[in-house]
Amino acid sequence: MSRQKSQRIAFAILTILAVIVVVPIVLVVAYIVVQGIGAINWEFLTTFPHHGMKEGGILPAIVGTVVLTFGTAIVSIPIAVGAAIYLAEYARDTWLTRAIRLAIINLAGIPSVVYGLFGLGLFVLSLRLGTSIVAGSLTLGLMTLPVVISTAEEALLAVPQRFRVVSRSLGATRWQTVRQLVLPNALPGILTGIILGLERAAGETAPILFTAAAFYLPQLPRSPLDQTMALPYHLYVISTQVPGMPLQVQYGTALVLLILVLSMNVVATMIRSRFRRRRQW
Amino acid sequence: MVAKISIHHLTFRYNDTVALRDVTLDIPANEITVIFGPSHAGKSTLLRCLNRLNDLIENEETEMTGQILLDGQDIYGPTVDVTELRRRVGMVFALPIPLPLTIYENVVYGLRMQGESRKELLDARVEQSLRQAALWDEVKDRLYEPAMRLSGGQQQRLCLARILALEPEVILLDNPTSGLDPLSTAKVESSLAELKAHYTIVMVPHSVQQAARIADLAVFLLNGQLVEMGSAEQIFTRPRDRRTEDYITGRFG
Amino acid sequence: MNALKPRQREFFVEALIRVAGFSAILFVVLIFIFLVKEGAPAFWETSLTNLFGQRWYPNEGLFGTTPLILGSLLVTGGAVVIALPLGLATAVFIRELAPNWLREILKPLIEVLAGIPSVVLGFLGMVAVAPLVRQTLNVPTGLTAFTGSLMLAYMSLPTIISVAEDAIDAVPSTYRDGALALGATHWQTIWRVILPAARSGVIIAVMLGIGRAIGETMAVMMVTGNAARIPREWNALFLPVRTMTATIAAEMGEVAQGSTHYHVLFAVGILLFLVTFLINAVASAVIIKGGARRGGRLMG
Known about the structure:
The complex is a heterotrimer.
Chain A: H1 3-36, H2 42-46, E1 49-50, E2 55-56, H3 59-90, H4 95-109, H5 112-126, H6 133-157, H7 161-169, H8 174-203, H9 206-209, H10 231-240, H11 247-278
Antiparallel strand pairs in A: 1-2
Helix pairs in contact in A: 1-11, 3-6, 3-8, 3-10, 4-6, 5-6, 6-8, 7-8, 8-11, 10-11
Chain B: E1 3-14, E2 17-28, E3 32-36, H1 43-50, E4 62-70, E5 73-74, H2 82-88, E6 89-92, H3 103-113, H4 119-132, H5 136-139, H6 152-164, E7 170-174, H7 182-195, E8 200-204, H8 208-214, E9 217-222, E10 225-231, H9 232-237, H10 242-248
Parallel strand pairs in B: 3-8, 3-9, 6-7, 7-8
Antiparallel strand pairs in B: 1-2, 1-4, 4-5, 9-10
Helix pairs in contact in B: 3-4, 3-6, 4-6
Chain C: H1 6-39, H2 42-45, H3 48-51, E1 56-57, E2 62-63, H4 66-97, H5 100-115, H6 118-137, H7 145-169, H8 173-181, H9 186-197, H10 199-215, H11 218-223, H12 244-251, H13 260-293
Antiparallel strand pairs in C: 1-2
C-alpha cells in the first residue's frame, strides 16, 4: 500500500471517529430542545408543581438552583481567588507550594458524591446546619474551588511579568502591584473561571443529595437554613421516583436546566473572547 | 567630588555564575555615570543592585556581598524601606514598558502608590515630568489614551517621565535607547543632558559611541570586574588599561 | 478596616491570601478526616469477611462490597475502552487535520458536552439510549453496564480530548519539521513522531479519564439498572450492574445516621477517595516527569 493511500485511509478513520464524538453532542442538545420546548411556557416557569408534581411548574426548583448557585459563589469566590493570588503572586517553589498544588489536583478529582458525604458529615451533622441551603452551598463551594483556582491562577500568570517588575521599580509594594495592576488585567479570565465553576455547581446533583435538596416543598425557602428544591435533583426525582410522570414535563425540566447551564457557558466564552481581542499586550 | 552612591566590594552571584566580582566604585551626584562593557559584563546586574530590583528574582539562588551606600546609608540595611528606596532611585528599562493604563495614569502610577490623590498636584506633576522628558508637546492632547498607542520612542520618554514624576534622586537607565531610532535616541540623550543638573544619572549605554557622547564619568566592566574608571575624556581618549583600549577601538565586543 | 493604616491593612490582606492558599491542603485533610470518622466504625461493627464478601443486601446485614467494586471497574473499564480511541482521534483531528474554522466550531462544542449536567445525560440515557441498546443488542433491559460505559465515555471525552490536545501541542515543532523534511507524510509524522512524543500526555489523559469515570454518579445510577451482582458471566457488560457511587447516592438518603449501613456507605466513600487520590497523584507525577523530559531525544 502506498504511503499516500495509507495516509488517506488513516485520515478518513480519524475523521469518522471525530464525527462519532461530535454528532451525538449536537443530537443530545437538539433532542432535548425538540422534546422539551413544548412543555415550556410562562406557567411552567412561574408556578409550583401540583397533583403529585405531574402538573404545574417548576418554580421552586429554578429558584432553589439560583439560590444554591449564589451561595456557592459566596463560599468559593473569596477562597479560590485568594488561593490563586497566593499561588501566582506569592508562593515560591517550596515543598509547601507543591503540597498545595497536589491538594488542588486531588480536590479536583474527588467524586462529587464523596463531596456529598463530606458535606453530610461536616456541615449537616457535625456543625448542625441540617439539610439546608447553607450546607449545600458550602459543599458545592468546596467542590468548585479547584476549577476556579486553576483558571484564576492561569489568568493572573497571563499578565506579563515585566509589568510587575516595572510596578515594583516605581515603589509599589507587592500587594499594590497585585491590586492595581495584575488583578484588573486578569479580571476577565478570573470571571470566566468563576462562571465555569458555578456552571458546574448549578448542574450537580450528587453533592446536594444529602446536604440541601428536598423532594417537594410547598413554599419557597425563607432562610438559608431551609431545605430547597433544585433543578438537577428535581429532574432526577421526576424521572426515577415518580411513576407515571408525563415525559414532556421531564424533557421540559431537562431543557430548563440545560439552558441555564449552557447560557453560563456562553457568557464565559463571550467574556473570554472579548477580552482576548481587546487586551493590549 | 561628593559621592551620591558608594559601592564597596560588591560581589553578586546567580546560582553558580558570578555576575559581579568585588566592584568598588563611587558615583558622583549631578553627573552622568556611564557603565559600559561587552554583554554579560554585569552592567544590568550592577544597576539592579542599586535599587534592589534583584530582590525580585525568584526561583534562583542569589547571593550578594559587599556594601552599597546611598548618601552614606546602607541600602541593604535592616531598617531600609525598599519601596521608599525605589522611589528615590528610579529605573528605566531597555525596552519601553508602558503599563496597560492611560498616558496620564502611567505618569502618576508611582505617586498614586504613595497614596497621593490630590488632583491638582497630580496634574501639575504630569505636565512637569512630561516636559522634562520632552514628551509634553506630543501627548498633551491625548493624556487619557492608552500608553500602548504611543510610538516606541514616545513610550521610552514616557517611562522616563514616569520616573521623574516621583522626583527621584537617582535615575538608572539600562540601555534605554536600544529599541529606538536615531531621532528618538537624540531626544532622549538631550533630555538626559538637561536632567543631570538635578539628578544623579547612572546609565548603561547602547554603544561606546553613545557612552562617549554623554558620559561625564565612565566605568568599564568586563566579566563582572571593574577594569577601569575615570572621566569620560580620559577613558575614551587615553585609556590606561589595554583591555579598555581594545574594547573601545572595537577589537572585541 | 478603614481605621487601619495602609501598611497594616496590607499585612492583613496578605495574611488572608496566605490562609486561602493553604486552605486547599486543609480541605483535603478535612475531607479525609470526616470520611474516616464516619466510615471507620464499619470495620469493627461488621467483619472484614462481610465487607469484602460477595453479597450486598444491607437489609439482611450483608455488606459485601465486591459486587460494587467490580461494577465500578466494569463500567469504568468499558468507558475507557470506548473513550480512548474516540478522544485521541478527536484530539489529533482537531490539532492536525481540522481547518481553523472547523476548530473554532469543534472546541466550543466539546465544551458544551463538558457543561451538560450529568443528571441530564443520565435522564437522556434512560429514556433514549437504553431503549436503543435493548433493541440493538436484543437484551431484556437496556439498563446495563454497557449503557453506563457509553454515557461515561462521552462524559470523560472532554477531559481526555483536552489533555491529549495539550500533549500534542507540547511536542516541539522541530520534531514535526524534522520528520516532514526527511520526507515523511503528514500521517507518518503524526503516527511515528508526534504521538510517541506525546505519550506521557496520553497516559495522563487516560488516567484522568478513569478518575472522572469512576467517580461519576448520577448518569451511572440512572442507566446501569442498579443490580448489586457480581459480573462473572461473559456477557456481564450487557447486564445490569451497580457501582460504588450509585450505591452511596441511592442508599444514603434512606439510612439511619449512625447505623452500620451508614458507616459502610462512608467506608465505600473512603475507598473512592483513596482511588481517585491515587490516580490524580500519579497523574500529576507523570505531568512533572513529562515536563522534564520534554525537548529530549527525537523518538520514532
